[in-house]
Amino acid sequence: MPQHGRHTSDSEQESRRRFLSYLTGLLGAVIAAALAIPLAGFYVAPSLKRRKRLWVSLGPVSSVQRAEPVKFTYSYTRIDGWYERVVRGTAYAVKRDGEILVLSNVCTHLGCGVRWDRDAKAFLCPCHNGRFDIEGRVIAGPPPKRLLRLPHTVSGGMIRIRVEEA
Amino acid sequence: MRRILRWIDEQTELVSIIKHFLEEPLPKGTGWPHIFGSAALFMFLVQAATGIFLMVYYVPSPENAYETVQYIQRGVAFGALVRGIHHWGASVMLLMVGLHMLQTYFWGAYKRPRQIIWVLGVGLLLVTTVFSFTGYLLPWDQKAYWATVVGTNIAGSVPVIGEWVRDLIRGSAGVGAITLTRFFALHVFFLPAALAALIVFHIFQMRKKGLTPSWRRVSDEANVEKTVLFYPDQAFKDAVFALILLALVMLVAWRVGAPIEPVANPADTAYAPRPEWYFLWLFQLLKYFPGWLEFVGAVLLPAIAVVLLIVFPYLDRNPERRPLRRPFATFLAIGTFLGVSALGTMAIVTAPREERLSPLQQRGQKVFMDLRCNTCHGINGGGGNAGPDLAQGGPYEPRRVERVIRDPTAFNPRSIMPYTALPPSDLTALVAYVAELNPNSRMPFMPAVGPKRPASHLEENWFLNHKFEVRKDPAYCSTCHKQRFCQSCHQNRRPDSHLKEWLKTHVGVASEQPAYCRVCHQQSFCDACHKTLLHGPDWLTTHGGRAPGREAMCGKCHQVPVSCQTCHRGAQPKSHSAPDWLTAHGKVAAAKKSECMYCHQANDCQKCHGAQKPGAQAALPAKATKPTAAPPAIFRDQCEACHGNAGRGNPAMAAAMKGLDLSKAAGKSPDAIGSVIRNGKDQMPAFKQLSDREVRQLVDFVRSLGGEK
Questions:
Q1: B68, closest residue in chain A (CA to CA)
Q2: Mean pLDDT of all residues in B460-487
Q3: What's phi and psi for A115, nearest 5 deg?
Q4: What number of C-beta contacts closer than 8 Å exist between A and B?
Q5: What pLDDT does residue B512 have?
Q6: Which domains occur in chain B, in start order?
Q7: Interchain pair B239, A31: CB under 8 A
Q8: C-alpha angle with apex B273: B70 to B94, nearest 5 degrees?
Q9: What pLDDT score was predicted for residue B159?
């Protein structure tokens, strides 16, 4: 009898312990989730922030007269996390058929800065030999798309372009 | 799942090791009272997890620490929660360590053979305390700064080596950048490593020696059945408690949040540093020690307490574990606990009350912040520097305050304070608030950042450092600020206005109210132009020599000649060369000596007079020279200014010209003397307008000077 009783007590003990271990696991999972969700959100949050678009002035329209692209640098301040910084960018403006085109100098391949080569009459990318013509169309190399044309307006003799916060 | 686990186990035996570790048999009677050790460990893990994530955004430098904490607090999703958990988790961890120690103590678990586990535990307590202390500084707010100043000064109270120890802790003479970086390194690298090593050793020893059976004598341990398994029996209880703790900490972190005070300001005189609750007893204890005994209360007693705590298990050899059978130890612990609690309670009770504002004043405070009065005015620091710090002059007479707000130029016509039209109710509230400001008042804390209001604007000298960007692209400001924002301070005073003639008419403002200039300019701005010409206290007395001929230079700042004439009126430097000026200057100098001092230095008189006083001069030449002939009238008119009334030279001109003593020319021929008079010589002008008769009179007079020799 005692042996029998001890036996049941053992199996009872065992099932109790199994139940407890499941419960402990559940509690552990709840604790882990309660910590993981805010921590993961905390880590990921800044990358999900929507980028602002803004208009910045590029330069006087009067300097875009030649048949060649003219290089302009523009700058704007943005709040970068916990501090403010001045972002500088480059864009080429060119007059084609009386219309002004503003081309971003960011290569559409992997983002190197392209530059106008006067002799080659093309935008050359220094990284993987991408080439774009004066209107930004791909003429050689790996770039998949033409150079980005930045939306722009001309007012008061100044070209203003719309850029996305970098 | 099982198969994966089995595979991992075959490869690494990891599962078996963990299983062996978890399925530790514990003595009968182990249960809820034994959860605190695990709870302390759990809280450490929570602290480690949240701490690591906080480091993703935190920057340990005085420039950025506060901003990054603000950014964590307001700019990042879950930031306030994560920081709150870390802040309150620290308290809970220390509380768990304390409860764990009390439990160990009352259960007699520190006794043979487990003394070393207790000693390691004391080590863990100390490391946890240093954790709190170093973590405190990291947000770089007022509390952080002042708590660290006071805390490190306690180390400085040790005789002889104290100051050296203090500077070693701080890394430099003051609490600053080096203190912050080393506290950061301690907090995130050294201490976690130390704590982890101690924890491992602590638990290893516990596993080795087994958990203390409850209420058994030391000699009576062997017979205790081990019926409890750590996993899942005890682990379940630990998990339940851990979840409760986490829920509690998260609730407090969410509802209350971690406090953040204004950025550290060493100049703040009104700040009353208060330590965290677990140091309050020590804080209170220090109040009972006079200055020269400071060291005893602040360092010696705590050090003795720590040493006693460490050696206690070796001192207490009573094999009895039941508290009631070892009354001395029990009462010692209860007595210490009550004593420490009493000190802590007294510290809380005697804490100075926060200044209470009436509802009207509270509204006034809100108006104050809404109007951004703090942009220019500090209240014991914490605000801009363009206007006076309001705490320093208060309390004020309400009617005067009201008048200044209604008409900023009422008492100072040059005030740049902008006029704001306020509804009467707001005005009354604002006056009620400002009038009561006094040297104990504190700048109301304004939560600083949102995505649209970067903390950087509150940084000291922000405008100063950003004036060019602001000017270059005012449109950028207008994304957050209204068009009239700049004008609310600048009114008609725009940066451009400084160009052209502006400086010339604002010298007065610049010298009277340099704070106005300093809002936008640094001191170097003045120095850039003035470095060669500083208008220091003695400048005016010497400028007479520099100004003539450099009118163009003066004209850069001053309106020439209008500015000169504000002092000189009729008396221009040239006036000194009028023929009769020098002869009469003795009278002028005697009567209005202070006027000479505008341009001349006190010893300028002595340059000519030597040791002689003006009074003596009149008598001396009379004695020394007795011209045989009286000077002719023409001599007095034309020559006396330089050659003196006796022909011996005017001492005032002696420095500038040679050969003034005519007695030296007396021996020359009359023709030679006459030629010099007619044609001039060296600096002496030609006197061609004189008649032959006048020349002859002069020649005779000059020759007569030689006769006396």
A1: A82
A2: 63
A3: -135, 150
A4: 90
A5: 61
A6: 32-104+113-218+233-341 (1.20.810.10), 353-446 (2.60.40.420), 625-707 (2.60.40.420)
A7: yes
A8: 75
A9: 84
pTM: 0.66
- Class of residue B583 by CB neighbours under 10 A (exposed 0-12, middle 13-18, buried 19+): middle
Q: How many CA atoms lie within 13 A of A134 on its CB side?
A: 14
ipTM: 0.84
Whether residues B236 and A23 touch (CB distance < 8 A) is answered with yes
Q: Are B272 and B108 in contact (CB under 8 A)?
A: no
Q: Which amino acid is at B185?
A: A
Amino acid code (one letter) for B164: W
Tell me the three state secondary structure of residue A103.
strand
Contacting residues of B for A38, CB less than 8 Å apart: 78, 81-82, 85
User: B177-185 and B162-170 are packed helices; what angle lies between their axes, rounded to 10 degrees?
Assistant: 80
What are the residue boundaries of the structural domains of chain A, listed by start?
A: 2-46, 53-164
Q: Which of B422, B431, B269 is nearest to B365 (CA)?
A: B431
Neighbours of A128 (CB within 10 A): 12
User: How many residues make up chain B in this entry?
Assistant: 709
* Nearest CA-CA distance, residue B482 and chain A, Å: 17
User: Tell me: the pLDDT tens digits for B219-241?
Assistant: 777 788 888 888 888 999 999 99
With an 8 Å Cβ cutoff, the interface of chain A facing chain B consists of 17, 20-21, 23-24, 27-28, 30-31, 34-35, 38-39, 41-43, 45-46, 54, 76-77, 79, 81-84, 86
Please, what sign has the CA dihedral across residues B558, B562, B565, B566? negative
**Cα–Cα distance between B161 and B396 in angstroms, integer?**
47
Residue B44 banded pLDDT, cuts 50, 70, 90: very high
Q: Using the Cα atoms of residue B102, residue B107, residue B113 and residue B114 in order, give the sign of their dihedral.
A: negative
Fold that domain A53-164 belongs to in CATH: Rieske Iron-sulfur Protein (2.102.10)
Chain A residue closest to B453 (CA)? A79
**C-alpha distance from B104 to closest chain A C-alpha (Å):** 25
